[in-house]
Amino acid sequence: MTPSRFMLLKQHQRFAQLIFGAVVLVGLCDAPCASAAAATLPAQARDLPAAGTTWCYSIGAGRVTPMTLTGVTSNIASYEAGGGSAPIKIDEQVDTYSTLNATRHGQRRLLDFPVVKDKRWSDEFDETVTSQLGHDASWQYHYHAVALSQVGATQKLKVGAGTFDTFVIERTTAWTKSDPHSSSAMLHAQHCDDASCSVSGFSKEVFWYAPSIGRAVLRAYTQSGDSSYVANQTPDDMLHDAGTLVTELVGYGDNATCAAPHASLQARTPSSPWYGFALWSNDTWEFLMTRDMARE
């Protein structure tokens, strides 16, 4: 076992103790509000609506991205996201709610069916990540993640697109990013801060999954170099923290839905840097890797 692998496992063990030793999933409202959601939501399996259905997601300030289901074949759902003349094509494993990556070893599981209150599961995987820097530069790095998930209370939640019965799901991840490289001329000046050219950190994601439409209606994401900071964040903390990215469903229906979305209630991008990482932009690969947050 390499030293970096040993350290990651030690970090993961400490992270797990912090997560499962704490009181998990404080709701967004008092008990009467949480109990308003159905006591047993139908979530034995993930049911998606008909092809052509569009989900409209916002990260605030009027920025809305449509995501249209084009079909489902052999447990793989295919989407077109972003609209316009060149939409991004996305393939997703239906039963894990996870996008596909041909380089992945292991399995990434955002959901584990049947979804029931207090259910816990873990997953671990390695993959090569390709990330874009603007429209002209792409770069890659190796990503290793160890994640723990738990289903909390059911909750009736109001978002821009309406009111939905949801499961509140917390996902906490210990990760390491390494071996960054690119053939893009724009990134020729990037260099490594030290010989290992790697960064390790922790992320927390809370998503409110609505079985009735087969996707989350709200997602809160944060990350840090400090495991205690991430593990102790409740869903309510995250929704009020300046370092959280909040994605919200503001429309749901046909392809024209996103042209006139509803106003978002909580969507926003982080207004402060993530705790435990470099505060100011620099030309190191380590900085780019810490700022690439799309993996979890």
TrEMBL record:
This protein's record includes keyword Signal: yes
Q: Which UniProt keywords apply?
A: Signal
Which residues does UniProt assign to the signal peptide?
A: 1-36
Q: What is the protein's name according to its record?
A: Uncharacterized protein
Please name the source species.
Paraburkholderia phenazinium
